[in-house]
Write a structure and sequence with these properties.
The complex is a heterodimer. Chain A is mostly beta strands. Chain A has four helices and 27 strands. The two termini of chain A are 18 Å apart. Chain B has a ten-stranded mixed β-sheet. The two termini of chain B are 28 Å apart.
């Protein structure tokens, strides 16, 4: 029996515990045998072995949700179905769940933001003297200035960019840089978010392309037919996020992965509160009768977690989108994209601002060398001490 | 600026068959100086000449005036949509038939109690049943129906019951407003709801809107700038985007017309000092287009207002919300509006800030707000820091900048003056003071300070050159602007290209 391991977690956040077993060779696998209140099991699955060798170990992933503060025990037992009374091993975790402490800024803002207000800058459009140029009364510690950014003299937020490339025929994942340009002059502030784009598997696997979400900030014409009352108000600058759209190219009759367009109801008020409805992924594998014989659940492929963004105040919180797509090669190729996740601002180093994209291509056999390429750790919230 | 009137509330009579205890006009019997039918027709024609879109016929009880169908019909003939607000007592099949024949679009009936006893106590015995019957007639005849509820302490807790009555009778639209201490309610100011009720009413309206059974239209006295309010108006008006308050329309897009032809910015603001003229003496067109008309509204600026309204991030557009709220509750249209959701939020924030006593921590916090462009929070935080450390240089510098960004030039000027007083060679404060004075229309003084800032500027921070250049350009002093570029170029090669090049910020080729 291993000693109790300690995990720190934050209330409201997921905790992932990964245990290794070799059910193929030993028949033993991990079972959750004790779960205290304060934690909830939100999911469990196995990541298949990295190699096709019979009996290779696999990872069992248990996903928990920290629901309330306190110290709670989680116990896993290594069991064989035919010998349930004799545990081969036990793993015990003590999960300490804390409520994230507020910063002063959050605390003060919470008084103001007991309710959400329209962003003042979007209301006061045109309040500046007409024909006026923009006076560069920068904050004492200027972040950008006309001098430093050239003729465009814009405030430019550098783009975070993640690039993860696999070799050979394996999927290539490129996250193009989202880029924000805030232009602070002209008739009204124009905010343009460049498109995040994902390209997967150039040529050799379904190509998934996310069209660009685009934000346009403009003033909607005040007069709308048959709605004369609208004349009485100037509408908010209209922010439209085009739906990211995924097109899955057909490849030799392969089942496509189709991602329905996420519906954005984003930033109506240019407020920090942004809600993205969950994109939902659907596989048409079943339509094509490509029932996967390798995985027991192949007929009902696949599971796509719904990403949800609920960013408030200075603490964006991006829940993890997760995609599992099944490629239709003779042998299935499983691609797992773990979640980029942002949970910035809760202090402590226990949260990675953005977990790295996680790619796990797996070629089962007859398709070159067996390979497992985990590029980076999947998101982790709890930190094992 | 040219103002175009779109709508008007027209109190066609002071006569009323009820004696409501909150009536803002204290209506009773019709008055002898009411406009004749012919005079009313002439007004209808003048409304057409002004390009008006729709008119709300009110009172008094407009249906007690026998020629209301003719007035509505004349408006309709002139391409103006007439709507009617009534207490419902005289609504019957014949009345609705007449309304339909004369192009009346919406008939709105006042309902102030969800229980019969409440409504009848406020208005008149039997009134509740009349209202319900009126809604049923409107529904049966397929006519657009609406309800008005004036919220006081007497009926605040009956909103659910009122809503149930309206939904049961398939009423299309529900306008909710607060009762203000004017007319009959001025004798019972204790019945006026507290400012906190504004948030409650917004939340209630939002929830009702989400339920989707009746459209809610919060009156102009409910606001301001909450996200929910924007969505409520978006739904009720039917626009694609949330709708936010753009300031009172009185004298800008609407006006009020009293029974005797007196023209006001709003029928709620009835004091004679706000009277703009009378249609018997001057035509409506002349009154509306007179540059001297509606000056109290058309020329109102944020800096005319007091208290938080003068410092509010929304102030330039909001201008204190409903002026009648300020007038009736505080005695002046220039007072701050405490019945405002944002005002409540500011008060809450100040109370929270009072528990912070470390100026350094407050400065850091203010910086975090500046980085996220939350200027109002930054200003409040710095004000607390300056309470604790009135001479803190960094606090004052940042406060000057934040105040400038909020358009609070008076406060920006004061902060920078204090900095310059302490250190006449503070280039940053000189620059801030110069820009602030320029914005305050004192450009000569502003330029003087900007020039001093330029003299103290190093190549590492050329902002003062940029600002001086821009101010000269704004003033049309192009040669001096060019000279600033030359001087800047000498100090930092490449400056001219970066600032003066076509396409550079805000500068035309």
């Amino acid at each position: 029996m291993a000693e109790t391991k300690k995990i720190e977690a934050v209330s409201g956040q997921p905790v992932q515990i990964v245990l290794q077993s070799a059910p193929g060779s030993t028949g033993y696998s991990w079972y959750l045998t004790q779960l205290d209140g304060g934690l909830a099991l939100s999911g469990a699955y196995s990541v298949p072995p990295a190699t096709p060798m019979p009996g290779a170990p696999s990872n069992q992933v248990f996903e928990l949700l920290a629901t309330s503060p306190g110290k709670f025990k989680v116990v896993f037992t290594l069991l064989a179905p035919w010998r349930v009374t004799e545990a081969a091993d036990t793993e015990t975790y003590e999960v300490e769940i804390t409520v994230p402490a507020k910063t002063a800024a959050e605390d003060i803002a919470s008084a103001m933001k007991g309710r959400e207000f329209v962003r003042a800058s979007s209301v006061n459009l045109g309040a500046a003297p007409s024909g006026s140029t923009v006076l560069k009364y920068a904050a004492p510690m200027a972040i950008s200035s006309p001098m430093s950014t050239g003729p465009a003299t814009q405030v430019i937020y550098a783009a975070p960019m993640a690039q993860s490339i696999t070799g050979g025929p394996f999927p290539q994942v490129i996250y193009a840089a989202p880029m924000a340009q805030a232009m602070t002059y002209g008739p009204f502030p124009q905010v343009i978010y460049a498109a995040p784009m994902t390209q997967v598997g150039q040529g050799m696997s379904p190509v998934v392309v996310y069209a660009a979400p685009m934000a346009q900030s403009g003033t909607v014409a005040a007069q709308m037919p048959g709605m004369q009352q609208a004349l009485m108000f100037q509408q908010q600058p209209n922010v439209i996020y085009a739906a990211p759209m995924t097109q899955a190219a057909m490849f030799q009759q392969q089942p496509n992965v189709i991602y329905a367009a996420p519906m954005s109801q984003a930033n109506m008020f240019q407020q920090p509160m942004v809600i993205y409805a969950a994109p939902m992924a659907q596989s048409v594998a079943a339509q094509y009768g490509m029932a996967n014989t390798f995985y027991p659940c192949a007929g009902a492929q696949p599971l796509y977690a719904a990403p949800m963004v609920s960013a408030t105040s200075a603490q964006p919180l991006y829940a993890a989108p997760m995609a599992t797509s099944i490629s239709p090669f003779t042998m299935p190729v499983v691609i797992l994209y773990a979640a980029p996740m942002s949970a910035a601002g809760y202090g402590a180093a226990m949260m990675q601002p953005y977990a790295a994209p996680y790619t796990l291509p797996m070629n089962m056999s007859g398709y070159g060398a067996a390979m497992m390429q985990p590029y980076a750790a999947p998101y982790t919230v709890g930190r094992c001490c | 600026m040219d103002y175009v009137p779109l709508t008007c509330v027209w109190e066609i009579t002071m006569g009323c068959n009820m004696r409501c205890n909150h009536c803002g006009s204290s209506c009773a019997e019709p008055l002898p100086d009411e406009l004749t039918t012919e005079e009313a027709f002439r007004v209808c024609d003048e409304m057409k000449a002004l390009g008006m879109k729709w008119i709300t016929l009110s009172g008094g009880e407009p249906l007690t005036r026998k020629d209301w169908p003719q007035i509505a019909g004349r408006l309709n003939q002139n391409g103006i949509i007439p709507n009617i607000i009534t207490n419902g007592w005289l609504v019957d099949d014949r009345m609705v038939e007449l309304a339909q024949q004369n192009g009346v679009r919406t008939i709105s009936i006042s309902l102030d109690g969800g229980r019969r006893e409440t409504h009848d106590r406020i208005r008149k015995p039997g009134a509740f049943d009349k209202v319900v019957r009126a809604f049923q007639i409107l529904r049966r005849r397929g006519h657009t129906s609406a309800a008005n509820t004036t919220v006081t302490r007497e009926n605040l807790d009956e909103l659910d019951q009122i809503k149930a009555v309206l939904i049961e009778n398939q009423v299309d639209l529900w306008q909710i407003q607060i009762g203000l201490p004017m007319g009959n309610l001025a004798k019972r100011p204790e019945a006026v709801v507290d400012p906190e009720v504004i948030d409650r009413l917004i939340d209630y309206s939002y929830q009702t809107q989400l339920e989707g059974k009746i459209k809610v239209f919060p009156a102009d006295c409910l606001g301001y700038y909450t996200a929910k309010e924007g969505v409520i108006r978006q739904y009720s008006i039917g626009t694609q985007a949330p709708v936010v308050w753009q300031g009172c329309n009185a004298g800008k897009r609407s006006f009020g017309l009293l029974h005797n032809g007196d023209v006001l910015g709003c029928t709620s603001i009835r004091d004679r000092s706000f009277l703009e003229g009378n249609v018997r003496q001057r035509s409506l067109v002349e009154i509306w287009n007179d540059p001297a008309s509606f000056k109290w509204s058309r020329e109102l600026k944020r800096t005319d207002l007091k208290g938080d309204c003068a410092q509010c991030a929304y102030g330039d557009v909001c201008l204190g919300g409903c002026p009648n709220t300020r007038l009736t509750l505080n005695g002046s249209i220039h007072s701050e509006n405490r019945h405002c959701s944002y005002h409540l939020a500011l008060s809450r924030t100040r109370a929270r800030l009072a528990s912070y006593a470390d100026p350094k921590q407050l400065l850091e916090t203010a910086w975090s707000y500046v980085r996220s462009e939350e200027w109002q929070l930054a200003a409040l935080t710095l004000e607390r820091a300056l309470e604790l450390d009135p001479e803190g240089k960094e606090h004052l510098e940042l406060y000057g900048f934040v105040s400038f960004t909020l358009g609070n030039y008076g406060r920006a000027k004061e902060a920078n003056e204090r900095l310059v007083q302490k250190n006449p060679r503070n280039a940053y404060a000189l620059k801030g003071l110069g820009l602030t004075l320029h914005r305050l229309q004192d450009s000569d003084q502003g330029l003087q300070h900007l020039r001093q800032a330029v003299d103290l500027t190093t190549p590492e921070n050329m902002d003062a050159y940029f600002d001086l250049f821009v101010v000269y350009r704004e003033l049309g002093r192009h040669q001096e602007a060019e000279a600033v570029l030359d001087r800047g170029e000498r100090l930092m090669p490449g400056f001219r290209m970066r600032v003066g090049a076509p396409g550079a910020i805000g500068i035309s080729p």
